[in-house]
Amino acid sequence: MFQDEVRRAAEILRSATRVVAFTGAGVSAESGIATFRGAGGLWEGQRIEEVASPHAFAADPVHVWRFYDQRRTNVAKVRPNPAHEVLAAWQERFPNYTLVTQNVDGLHQGAGSRRVVELHGSLWRVRCTGCGREREDRTAPLPALPPRCAECGAFERPGVVWFGEALPAEAFLGAESAAEACEVLVVVGTSAVVYPAAGLVAVAAAVGAKVIEVNPEASALAHLADVTLRGPAGAMLPQVDAMLAGG
Ligand code: OAD
């Protein structure tokens, strides 16, 4: 039966030129990165809010940095999976393609995606809490926590969006206008409960775009999907891609 859904997804995509892929933690699950909302909302032994908020950082920057240093170290050891690879290959397939992610792991770029709209920032960027200078840093683990700004000496913080913070405006506006203009939105591996990111699905649906959901479980916005691929992204997306390539 899911073969029918794979075929429908491929049919919808075959004639499309304006395509948006919107991903969440589930796209990296098969690479070995834990998702956020499995196992009772604990993530690597932590409540997300206790390590992912400006308040937590102000109270204990070393604790927060240990958590992010561990995440960076874990991600540095893993490889992109076939789902990341298909979503990268689609930049060649569709004339107007936007890849929007809530993930901070950089695995889309690792698979060859050249332009990724990162709504929640990146683990590989750090930002000075004093002068605001941003830089890329791929050292994992970091030699000293918290890292300090080479310009002004203040603590640096992870370049990710925390609870209670605004999304980077340029990224969000870019994602929103791509969703408003798209013919097909492929939603992969997100529970679709964190706003404003999840709102992109309703934006696309409202302008009449077809929505394809790829997720082993129903997301909060599964009712907006025209086609549902109930399985792991690393298995489902290559099947859709093979059918697309097969003509
Ligand atoms: P969640 O952990 O909330 O959801 C992960 C989704 O992936 C679930 O719907 C799973 O069913 C699905 N999933 C699991 N394995 C999968 C697989 N192999 N293939 C496809 N899907 C799979 O993660 P997100 O929706 O990304 O925000 O969470 C959104 C935001 O909440 C994150 O970006 C983060 C977090 O708070 C910030 O840090 C700002």
Sheet with the most strands, sense and barrel status: 6 strands, parallel
How many extended strands? 11
Question: In one word, what is the shape?
Answer: elongated
Low-confidence stretches: none
Name the CATH class of the largest domain.
Answer: Alpha Beta
Name given to the CATH homologous superfamily of the largest domain: TPP-binding domain
Count of domain modules: 2
Strand percentage, roughly? 15-25%
Helix content: 25-40%
- Structural class call reads alpha/beta
Radius of gyration from the alpha-carbon trace, in angstroms: 18 Å
Number of helices, where a helix is a run of at least 4 consecutive DSSP H or I residues: 9
H/E element order: HEEEHHHHEHEEEEHEHEEH
Mean pLDDT: 95
**What multimeric state do the chains show?**
single chain
Corresponding CATH architecture of the largest domain: 3-Layer(aba) Sandwich
CATH-assigned fold name of the largest domain: Rossmann fold
Provide the list of bound ligands, each named once: 2'-O-acetyl adenosine-5-diphosphoribose
Description:
With 247 residues, this protein is an alpha/beta fold. It folds into two domains: 2-33 and 80-120 and 167-246, 3-Layer(aba) Sandwich (Rossmann fold); 42-77 and 126-160, SIR2/SIRT2 'Small Domain' (2-Layer Sandwich). The protein contains nine helices and eleven strands. A six-stranded parallel β-sheet has the order 5-4-1-9-10-11, sandwiched between helices. β6 and β7 form a beta hairpin. α1 crosses α9 (233-246), α5 packs parallel to α9 and α7 packs parallel to α8 (199-206). It is elongated, with a radius of gyration of 18 Å. The site of 2'-O-acetyl adenosine-5-diphosphoribose (OAD) has 24 residues, from loops.
